[in-house]
Amino acid sequence: MALDYSTTSTSPIMSSQNNIPPISTPPSSSAYCFISDKDVHCVPINSFNSFSDNFLALDNTAKQNDEADYTPDKLYLKNKNLLYSLNNPSLSDLELESPTLVNAQLNTGSPPTPIHHLSTSSIVNGNSHFQQTPLTTITKPSNDINLPAIINNYSTHAIYLPRLIVNLSENLTTEFKELKALLIKIFPTWSPDDNITLKQLTGGITNMLLSCTNHQLNVTVLIRVYGHGTNLIIDRHREFISHLILNSIGLAPPIYSRFKNGLVYGYLSGRSLEPNELSNENLFPLIAQNLGNWHNRLDYKLIENGVEKLRTFSMNLKLKLKASNPTTTTSTTSTSSNTSSHTKTKKFKKKFISNVWELLEDWIDIVPINPDLISSFDGNLPHEVTKDNLKSIIKEEFYWLKDNLIKSNSPVVSSHCDLLSGNVIIPDDFDMDKPITELPPIEENPIRFIDYEYMLPAPRAFDIANHFAEWQGFNCDRSAIPTPHKSNLTLVKWVKGYLGDLNAPMDQVEDLIEEIATFYGLPGFYWGIWAMIQSELSNIDFNYSNYGKLRLEEYWVWKGHYLKKQQQQQQQK
Fold first, then answer.
1. CA distance 559 to 377
2. Are 132 and 121 in contact (CB under 8 A)?
3. Contacts of 214 (CB under 8 A, 6+ apart)
4. I need a surface site. Which of 28, 334, 471, 513 has the fewest CB within 10 A?
5. Residues paired with residue 34 on neighbouring β-strands, in sequence order
6. Res 377 pLDDT > 80
7. CB atoms within 10 A of CB 503
8. Mean pLDDT score, 203-213
9. What CA–CA distance (Å, rounded) separates 47 from 43?
């Protein structure tokens, strides 16, 4: 159902336009991002002048440090890595078709692109109702256009504020004064006179989840501030767009805003699971059914298109800000000058991380060399591993693993990639003791998944195997991981839940179990490399290096079984 701007307190302001403002107009550093016709649109926020000043002022990147950008000197990140570049594009990152395009975008005489007037048609998609709105062109931006009427056409939209950094240290000493002001700007029905309270749920001063309640309106939203150095390992553009699209089809709570180092999004009632609850036979068929629904309904190509649009907006913003403020610092001027000269002779083609294999390879490029990592590879390979050859050996191992796994032809889907117990939400009143005799209609499945930081296109068998690996918890009790064999009745029942049919034919079940078994080693390799990076990035009191070594051991055990099975198959031929 359409949002009612006059009564809904969690509806961020939204407008629409495609044009790039001329240099004489202050460049908008913010955008509205919304779903229309199953597609993502990113529109400059100053499309409607009467609402522009409110958000053009939300720019403090020159005064605040972004902890998510933190790169310690001891980490081998002289040139950082691709993910960092994607999260923080510079002028040299631009993908330009021709120098003419740049000039046209920055030309003060360029005619404005028409904006769009919105007409509503209600679409029912699966288990959710959302507004899918065709765009029809009208003439130009106008203060007379009814902004609330435009908002009411969308159930999925958010404000993108790439130049606003939230300083948690300052907020903690001022009773969250800055965050309260941000919420009042995002939500038009919130007032400075309202009783707004913020409560810290998790994390420290550089990685925090806050609940924010407006007691007058009886509404609670969440604010997450990104962790230390996470721009090096997480694609924040992809996380934001994935959340938008998930919400548009009823698979995620609303998302209201993204600022440079965090998100504002909807509160989902219920509780998260403990690792030992993942194997509860009265629960796991529902988890499996919900994951199967994710894989079937989400089109990763829609997410890819949305991510590209958001990156294009960020890149164009760099150009516009540079053009509107030529008196920048020496280093920036030098970089821009070099870039401008380069565009005269060469097209830029920017590589994007578009699947789990590319992400893992990017992580390997920045993984720090430490004793635990050397010990893991040296103790499981026939040749000596030292700090001098470690990186090349990790790459060789990765290529071997990738080449063998892609032979399984596991379908590529939009994968959660981090379905641990804490990211599975059940209702507070869920009865763990009630047996499941049949699967409910998917719209009645009470399970919800949260936290979409690591979502990427990946083989479905990886997403499933990765979830099973999380049954062991952070203690790495591998005995808790279900054995991937057709004789394992727990796995058989889980796979039937994933297929959406507790009476699924056994040949179909066994084929999927075999497919999943092939990927049982990848989660250990993936999170082992991740943990080694976190050992130097994170300021959380946790032994990431030892955890990484334990997860890599999970990979080596799988590899031994895999090679033995291959050898037996060769002998039988």
1. 13
2. yes
3. 9, 183, 187, 190, 194, 195, 196, 220
4. 334
5. 41, 157
6. yes
7. 8
8. 79
9. 8
How far, in Å, CA of 331 to CA of 337, rounded?
A: 10
Instruction: Output the average pLDDT for the chain.
Output: 79
Interval 387-391 mean pLDDT:
96
- CA 361/CA 395 separation, integer angstroms: 8
Cα 151–chain centre separation: 25
Bridge partners of residue 198, in order along the sequence = 212
> Distance of alpha carbon 66 from its chain centroid, rounded?
18
Q: CA-to-CA distance for 377 and 556, rounded, in angstroms?
A: 9
Report d(CA 358, CA 237) in Å as an integer.
16
Partners of 203 in the beta sheet?
208
Strand residues in 280-333 grouped as ranges (E): none
Q: Where are the beta strands (DSSP E) in 269-370?
A: 271-272
Residue with tokens 């990848």: 522
If one compares 158 and 10, the residue with the highest pLDDT of the two is: 158
Token readout for 336 is 């821009």
Q: Label residue 175 left, alpha or beta by phi (over 0 means left) and psi (-120 to 50 means alpha).
A: left
Residue 436's pLDDT band (cuts 50, 70, 90): very high
* The model's pTM: 0.82
* Rounded CA separation 245/224 (Å): 19
Under the phi-then-psi rule, with left for phi > 0, alpha for psi from -120 to 50, and beta for the rest, what region is 144?
alpha
DSSP letters, 234-285, are: --HHHHHHHHHHHHHTTSS--EEEEETTEEEEE---SEEPPGGGTT-TTTHH
pLDDT tier for residue 408 given thresholds of 50, 70 and 90: very high
Residue 162 dihedral angles phi and psi, to the nearest 5°: -70, -10
Residues 6+ apart with CB under 8 A from 461: 408, 410, 515, 516, 518, 519
Least Cα distance to 460 among 288, 244, 212 occurs for 288
The position carrying tokens 């509860």 is 280
Instruction: Using DSSP, state whether 538 is helix, strand or coil.
Output: coil
Cβ atoms of residues 256 and 187 within 8 Å: yes
Q: Which residue has the tokens 């009467």?
A: 50
- SS3 state of residue 220: strand
Q: Which of 116-125, 351-360, 445-454 has the lowest mean pLDDT?
A: 116-125
Q: Tokens standing for 234?
A: 């997480």
